Amino acid sequence: KAELIDFDIPLADVEAVLKDAPRIKRITPATALATLPLPRPPVTHKYKEGHLLLICGSRRYAGGAILTGLGARASGVGMLSIAVPESLKSLLVSHLPEALIVGCPETETGAIAHLELPEKTDLSSFNAIACGPGLTRDATPIVQEVIESDRPLILDADGLNILAQMGAIATLKKRLAVTVLTPHTGEFQRLFPDVTDAKHDKVQAVREAATQSEAIVLLKGARTAIANPQAAVWIVPESTPALARGGSGDVLTGLLGGLLAQAATKQILVEDIVATAAWWHSQAGILAAQERTELGVDAFTLTQYLIKVLSN
To answer: Could you read off the pLDDT of 9-60 as tens digits, one per residue?
Structure first.
C-alpha cells in the first residue's frame, strides 16, 4: 500500500508503488518548473513580486540568518526584509546588501526580544513570513506573535520547537492563514507525538499531522514528503546525502519563503509552491554533489547552486 512506502528503498521501487497511489503525487521537473512564478510580466515592480519577512538569527546562531537570507535571495522575491537581533545587523548587511535588515532589541542571551519593524510597517505589510532558523527558544514571544498574525507563515527550527511547547495542533487550528511546517524527524516527533511513527510510515505520519493541525507539513529527509490538510501527499523522489549538513534546512526555509511571498501575489496554490521549493532545493544538492562530491556541499555552497538548477 502507498501508506507503507519505505522512503529508503530504490527509486524504481518507489515509482512502482506510486502507480497505485492516486493520492500521492510525485514531483517532476516539469511540474516543478511549471509552478515557478516564471516568466515575469514585462511590466512589473518589486512589490508585485512579493515581500517576504524573515525572522531569524541570534548572537549564538548568526549563520542561520545568513543562510536563510541567501536561500530567499535565490527565490527571486521582489522585496526581502530580515529581522535579526541588533548586534547582527551589520553582519547581515554585508552578506545581503539588497535586503532591508531590521535590527531588533535583544535579550541578554542575544535572542530577539521583540519585533521592532520600520515606521508604518506591521506584520500585515508582508506577503509571507518565515520564522525560526537560529532564533533559540528565548525568542518564544516572537513566535507567538507571528502565529497570531493573518499572514502565510513558515515555521522551521526553533520556531517549531517553540510551537511544540505551545501545543502544535491546538495552536495551529486557531490560525486564520496558511501555515507551513518544515520539520526533520526529531522536530516532527516533538510536534506530533501522538501520530504514526514517521520512521515506520512516513506518508501516513505526514498525512495525519497535516489533517490534524490543518497545516501543510513538509517532513524533510531522504524522499521528502509533504501533505496538506485534505490528506493529499507529494513526494520528492530524488535526493542526496550531501544535504545531511548543518544549515541545509535554513536554505530551504528561505527559498520556500521567497516563493510563498511571490505565490501570494499570483494565482499559485501554496501546496504546489511547497513541493516545488523542496524539489528545487533537492536538485541543487544533487547538482552540487555531482560537481563537488557528497562531501563538498556545505550549506553556503548549496545556495550557489540553486540558480544553476534552473539554468541547466
So the answer is: 344 445 544 554 547 888 999 999 999 998 888 999 998 999 999 999 999 9
CA distance 46 to 19: 42
**Can you give the pLDDT at residue 21?**
54
Q: Tell me the pLDDT tens digit for each residue of 176-209.
A: 999 999 999 999 999 999 998 888 889 999 999 9
Whether 14 is covered by a domain: the verdict is no
The alpha carbon dihedral of 247, 253, 258, 259 has a sign of positive
Residue 230 and residue 216: Cα distance in Å, rounded?
A: 9
Domain CATH for 289: 3.40.1190.20
Q: What is Dmax (Cα atoms) for the chain?
A: 55
Task: Give the torsion sign (CA, 140, 145, 150, 152).
Answer: negative
The answer to whether position 21 is within a domain reads: no
Does residue 29 lie in a domain region?
Answer: no
Cα–Cα distance for residue pair 2/26, rounded to 1 Å: 12
Residue 127 inside a domain? The answer is yes
Task: Judge whether residue 174 has pLDDT over 60.
Answer: yes
Domain limits for position 93: 43-311
Please state the domain count of the chain: 1
Task: Tell me if the pTM is above 0.90.
Answer: yes
Separation between Cα atoms, residue 71 and residue 73, nearest integer Å: 5
Q: Are 65 and 92 in contact (CB under 8 A)?
A: yes
